[in-house]
């Protein structure tokens, strides 16, 4: 009797062992691989927030509804994992057909060997829609374009007009000394003058770089690609950053993207330097009217300063294993950049994703968005700021192949941390940064 | 005397209270924040209770994101991981710690060495192997990896439970004519239930929180697990804190519940064999 029970239990366990994995198989569609009969193009993008995923999906659905030969399927990836993932995928020939990118990530992916040049497509789209020069330049190397520019991002100085008024400040700072003075005036009680990040992350890299640009230290490579980071302008920008950190919340050492915005919207900080993601949630998170949100160009160094801000275009690379699939991928990118579709794509994050084409900037599909209309002044200011923007490794017509090794290690952020957390002098930290960058690019 | 005893307890009570606040404080904060609107979450003067409690964050979580899909995937992967870990580690531990196999001790040591290899070193080679056998972007791949990482530790974890069962019982069963298989299932298995519960909970929680391999091996949105889903909610450039808090609450609860039932066995399993 008991033996029967044991047998039954054993049979049940075996049945579970067989049945459960079948349930676990799931409906994997997998990365492309490009099998002969497979008419689905895989698109990897790294815009993970649900609103962006949904908006991109709408554009993809609209494209698939046109009955193209190859339909597109999006798969959302994580920026933090994409470097390892794309490397593994290319090595195992399971890479996506379309991969979203930024300039320094492109320098990492190209040597893997799967990226197709898209020169004729970019030139065709340029004729039809007119790209800004800054949008294309960072993707041109070896006389070829390696990605199709899709949307731009630029940093601004954001400030709370209500808190400025309380402190008796009538206009946004234009120079570094005004920025620091205002930050000091705005710091009182629980309120800090500014929130800038000092974590070891890309957010810190980008904010310090905006100040380096306006201080004349944006180009830290020589014409031959050697590192030229250790110079007085870099030290001056880092000194300013260290002073601004003194007027920032005390946990700035852990800040990345979200925390300065949270401090700004809560009124715990009166200023921040970031991109256009500050527009959409401002009213909801701050409880203040839209008119309280101010924006201005990044303040410039008092002597030798120049207009500037970190600016880069996000783009799409084509990695299809055969010509037919590559043509399908190009057809999809043509569809995205048509003015009637482009606005819906950009408004996945209104204000953060800026148009890169002339007809896109005036397309009603973009300009009719509520957020864009409400903050028209700031949107125009961002487009204006884009004209003087730049990105490390790609300024002054450069294309530094090894820039991915510098940005991948967040060396700029580490330099900030050495001053902020270790109490090192800006000059010593910059010297250290120079050594680290030299080592990184020589590997 | 009674008063003196009570005073004697004060430091201990204070320490316990401090520890409770330290451990449960963040959980409380996350839970309360999940019921606040976005403005109240960020307010510079924080509120202990939501002023205007709202379920909006939860509504958005379940309607505007793929959270239900992440939840289902996590449950499937975690349950399968727990099941197969119990199966594999029970069989392995029985062989190693119950049967007198020559070299059994050395094999037991080797199993623990396998546990000490950092998982991230295996990322790229594992991806390539799974790609060759068409397992990339399947839940099976995650279950296999999770079991591979939990089984060695769980085999070792069962050691104390096995040692707590007197060998005399085996001998008595053998005298009654029970063979090794019957002894394993009829005698040892029922006595090992606390140990297997411990192993099941450990494997479930390991799988529930596993991020690195899930982020590499899963590509399709409809197969992603909770840690990947939560990371997606964090996003690049901006964070919807309300959504994140609601997601965290819904993710933590299923991991806590098994511990409530099997937590005491788990602690017992870790300390078993420490004192003779």
Structure description:
The complex is a heterodimer of chains A (443) and B (276). Chain A has 443 residues and is an alpha/beta fold. Chain A has helices at residues 2-25, 50-64, 79-91, 103-109, 119-129, 133-137, 161-166, 176-186, 202-214, 232-246, 258-266, 282-286, 323-337, 339-346, 358-361, 364-367, 370-374, 376-386, 403-408, 411-420, 426-442; strands spanning 40-45, 71-76, 98-101, 140-141, 144-145, 148-154, 156-160, 271-274, 293-296, 309-318, 389-390. Chain A has two domains: 40-154 and 311-386, Periplasmic binding protein-like II (D-Maltodextrin-Binding Protein, domain 2), CATH 3.40.190; 156-310 and 396-442, Periplasmic binding protein-like II (D-Maltodextrin-Binding Protein, domain 2, 3-Layer(aba) Sandwich), CATH 3.40.190.10. Chain A has 21 helices and eleven strands. In chain A, strands 1, 2, 3, 6, 10 and 11 form a six-stranded mixed sheet that branches. In chain A, strands 8-7-9 form a three-stranded antiparallel sheet. In chain A, strands 4-5 form a two-stranded antiparallel sheet. In chain A, helix 10 packs across helix 20. The longest helix of chain A is centred in the first third of the chain and has 24 residues, at 2-25. Chain A is globular, with a radius of gyration of 24 Å. Chain B has two domains: 1-54, no CATH class; 61-271, MetI-like (MetI-like fold), CATH 1.10.3720.10. Chain B has helices spanning 2-34, 38-42, 56-64, 67-97, 104-115, 123-132, 139-163, 167-175, 180-191, 193-209, 212-217, 226-234, 241-271. In chain B, helix 3 (56-64) packs across helix 13 (241-271) and helix 12 (226-234) runs antiparallel to helix 13 (241-271). The radius of gyration of chain B is 23 Å and the shape is globular. Classes of the chains: A alpha/beta (443), B mainly alpha (276). At the A-B interface, helix 1, helix 2, strand 2, helix 3 and helix 11 of A face helix 2, helix 4, helix 6, helix 7 and helix 9 of B.
């Amino acid at each position: 009797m008991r033996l029967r029970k044991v047998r039954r239990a054993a049979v049940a366990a075996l049945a579970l062992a067989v049945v459960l994995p079948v349930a676990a198989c799931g409906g994997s569609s997998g990365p492309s691989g490009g099998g002969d009969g497979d008419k689905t193009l895989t698109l990897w993008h790294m815009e993970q927030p649900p609103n962006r995923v949904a908006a991109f999906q709408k554009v993809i659905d609209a494209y698939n509804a046109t009955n193209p030969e190859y339909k597109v399927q999006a798969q959302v990836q994580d920026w933090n994992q994409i470097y390892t993932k794309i490397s593994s995928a290319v090595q195992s020939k399971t890479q996506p057909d379309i991969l979203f990118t930024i300039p320094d990530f492109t320098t990492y992916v190209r040597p893997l060997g799967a990226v197709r040049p898209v020169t004729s497509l970019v030139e065709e789209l340029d004729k039809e829609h007119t790209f800004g020069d800054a949008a294309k330049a960072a993707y041109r190397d070896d006389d070829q374009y390696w990605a199709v520019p899709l949307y731009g991002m630029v940093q601004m100085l954001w400030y709370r007009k209500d808190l400025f008024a309380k402190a008796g400040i009538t206009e946004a700072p234009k120079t570094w000394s005004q920025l620091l003075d205002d930050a000091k005036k705005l710091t009182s009680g629980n309120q800090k003058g500014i929130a800038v990040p000092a974590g070891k992350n890309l957010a810190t890299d980008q904010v310090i770089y905006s100040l380096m640009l306006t201080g004349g230290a944006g180009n830290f490579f020589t014409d031959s690609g050697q590192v030229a980071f250790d110079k007085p302008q870099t030290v001056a920008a880092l000194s300013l950053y260290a002073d601004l950190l003194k007027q920032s919340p005390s946990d700035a050492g852990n800040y990345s993207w979200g925390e300065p915005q949270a401090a700004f919207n809560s009124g715990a900080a009166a200023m921040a330097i970031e991109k256009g993601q500050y527009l959409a949630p401002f009213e909801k998170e701050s409880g203040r009217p839209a008119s309280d949100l101010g924006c201005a160009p990044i303040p410039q160094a008092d002597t030798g300063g120049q207009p500037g801000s970190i600016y880069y275009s996000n783009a799409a690379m084509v990695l299809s294993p055969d010509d037919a699939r590559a043509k399908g991928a190009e057809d999809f990118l043509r569809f995205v950049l048509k003015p009637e579709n482009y606005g819906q794509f950009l408004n996945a994050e209104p204000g953060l994703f800026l148009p890169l084409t002339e007809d896109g900037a005036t397309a009603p599909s973009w300009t009719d968005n509520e957020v864009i209309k409400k903050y028209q002044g700031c949107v125009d200011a961002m487009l204006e700021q884009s004209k003087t923007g730049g990105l490390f490794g790609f300024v002054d017509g450069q294309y530094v192949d090894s820039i991915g090794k510098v940005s991948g290690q967040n060396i700029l952020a580490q330099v900030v941390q050495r001053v902020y957390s270790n109490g090192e002098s800006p000059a010593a930290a910059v010297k250290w940064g120079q050594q680290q960058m030299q080592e990184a690019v020589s590997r | 005397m009674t008063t003196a005893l009570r005073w004697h307890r004060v430091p201990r009570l204070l320490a316990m209270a401090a520890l409770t606040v330290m451990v449960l404080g963040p959980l409380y904060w996350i839970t309360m924040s999940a019921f606040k609107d976005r403005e109240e979450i960020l307010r510079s003067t924080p509120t202990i209770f939501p002023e205007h409690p709202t379920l909006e964050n939860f509504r958005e979580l379940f309607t505007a994101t793929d959270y239900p899909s992440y939840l289902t995937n996590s449950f499937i992967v975690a349950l399968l991981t727990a099941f197969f870990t119990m199966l594999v580690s029970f069989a392995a531990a029985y062989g190693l710690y119950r049967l007198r196999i020559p070299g059994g001790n050395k094999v037991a040591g080797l199993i623990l060495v396998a546990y000490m290899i950092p998982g991230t070193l295996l990322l790229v080679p594992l991806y390539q192997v799974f790609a060759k056998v068409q397992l990339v972007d399947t839940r099976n791949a995650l279950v296999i990896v999770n079991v591979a990482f939990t089984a060695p530790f769980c085999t070792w974890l069962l050691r104390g439970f096995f040692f707590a069962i007197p060998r005399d019982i085996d001998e008595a069963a053998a005298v009654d004519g029970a063979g090794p298989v019957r002894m394993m299932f009829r005698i040892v298995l029922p006595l090992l239930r606390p140990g297997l519960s411990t192993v099941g909970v450990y494997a479930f929680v390991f799988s529930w929180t596993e991020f690195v391999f899930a982020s590499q091996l899963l590509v399709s949105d409809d197969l992603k697990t909770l840690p990947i889903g939560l990371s997606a909610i964090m996003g690049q450039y901006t964070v919807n804190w309300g959504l994140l808090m609601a997601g965290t609450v819904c993710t933590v609860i299923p991991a806590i519940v098994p511990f409530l039932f099997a937590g005491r066995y788990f602690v017992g399993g870790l300390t078993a064999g420490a004192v003779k």
